[in-house]
Amino acid sequence: xxxxxxxxxxxxxxxxxxxxxxxxxxxxxxxxxxxxxxxxxxxxxxxxxxxxxxxxxxxxxxxxxxxxxxxxxxxxxxxxxxxxxxxxxxxxxxxxxxxxxxxxxxxxxxxxxxxxxxxxxxxxxxxxxxxxxxxxxxxxxxxxxxxxxxxxxxxxxxxxxxxxxxxxxxxxxxxxxxxxxxxxxxxxxxxxxxxxxxxxxxxxxxxxxxxxxxxxxxxxxxxxxxxxxxxxxxxxxxxxxxxxxxxxxxxxxxxxxxxxxxxxxxxxxxxxxxxxxxxxxxxxxxxxxxxxxxxxxxxxxxxxxxxxxxxxxxxxxxxxxxxxxxxxxxxxxxxxxxxxxxxxxxxxxxxxxxxxxxxxxxxxxxxxxxxxxxxxxxxxxxxxxxxxxxxxxxxxxxxxxxxxxxxxxxxxxxxxxxxxxxxxxxxxxxxxxxxxx
Length: 437
What we know:
It is a single chain. By secondary structure, the chain is of the alpha/beta class. It has helices at about 140-155, 195-205, 255-265, 270-285, 315-325, 335-345, 360-370, 405-425, and strands at about 50, 70, 75, 85-90, 100, 105-115, 125-130, 160-165, 175-180, 215-220, 240-245, 270, 290-295, 295-300. The chain has a domain at about 400-430 and about 435. It has 8 helices and 14 strands. The protein is globular. Residues about 385-405 and about 425-435 have low confidence and may be disordered.
């Protein structure tokens, strides 16, 4: 759902009743519970294992009686928001080089420990547009926004940086660009209405005539309209990245925005400084450089030695697929098929694959048909609603009640008969708690 965001949907399947022998099917645990397991691979950071961060939950409930366990014991820290940020390693871990050859071309993904902090190249002469969301929800982040733009004047010095002050439908103003050096606090007071990243990008395309080296959308973790038409123009040159103030990434991006970020080499961040450093490293790096993160420098190299670390394979496959997307032209279906095969081989979720649990033969056949279609990599838009073409008639005699429903009907008829009989025998005298109309 984003460069660093994933959606997990679980559809509980009620266990089948126990057989006459008293045994349950093998797919259900001996205790009758249904289990969902998710596996992910990560590198250690500061002698700890980072855990996924919860961005949004729906139809999932827990309370103070919910039990969580980590390595067979209680989880450390507060559990108000799902899991702790990291689990301590059982012993000290020294960063080491990892390498794995994903395909048969001789290219390998390398993770090399960064000695200290890799210096950020000093860039000059770049053209940058900062697209500022001015919808109502951004009012809560105004101070952080002002501090962010003030610091940007320092580390973006020597570049042509303009700020696009966007508008919403209720503001009755037009979007305008202001040089970062001329921006003042009074210009950022009119937060009104609602907006979406799709609308912000359309304003940027319409107002910024000259191609930019970097476009950064500064917003919060607010709404992303997934159902609207996404055929509009997008940023066609330079890197596109998202900065979400407030410390939380957006839970989802529309497909066109996501594709633009991925193909341009951009990503999502919670600070403008990190987005700029990511861009600067890309600009000044040697060929094959992917990113610097969590104390490692990741790259793709040809004929890399000792490229056979199987534990690193899922991370290598994930990064290899991401790097293959960064092409000036859209990938062909055959190329996406190859990336999809790699994702399946190394059990990773990618922009070209999902992990599905197929319950019956009909679902397997439906998936096989979908995989053979020419548009198999086009995501179907979900409206969130269902239209019942032939709704069932609740009064139809063909709808046979279950035994429990028969019992409820019998009890209801019995109570109704008792009330009618009591009313005939003593008009106006009703049991306590019942109201006559």
